[in-house]
Amino acid sequence: MNGLFGVELIYAGYNAGVLLKGKAKQPVYIYIKNDDVEIRDASHLWGRFNPDNQETLRKELKKDLDDQISESSPSGRRESTW
Fold it and tell me: What is the SS3 assignment for 37?
């Protein structure tokens, strides 16, 4: 986890963390705001450079001024074991 993402999860009430199982059929991201948890389409972010993705998400989520973003690296997206 990067930055304050882990701390923000605790503030949202997820003290034990978040366990993700399985594999999505298309690129997705998980939106968490207090009790609101959604799996959203991320096709428009796939294959782009991480800072560009963060800028795009911040614009999309501008109503959430205190947002935190954590994302996988390109190697994580390819399911690299190294």
Answer: strand
Contacts of 42 (CB under 8 A, 6+ apart): 26, 27, 28, 29
Q: What is the pTM of this model?
A: 0.67
DSSP 44: G
CA angle 13-15-20, nearest 5°?
95
For residue 66 the two structure tokens come to: 């205190």
Q: What is the pLDDT of residues 37-72, one digit of tens each?
A: 888 998 998 888 878 888 888 888 886 656 666 666
Alpha carbons 4 and 11: distance in angstroms, whole number:
11
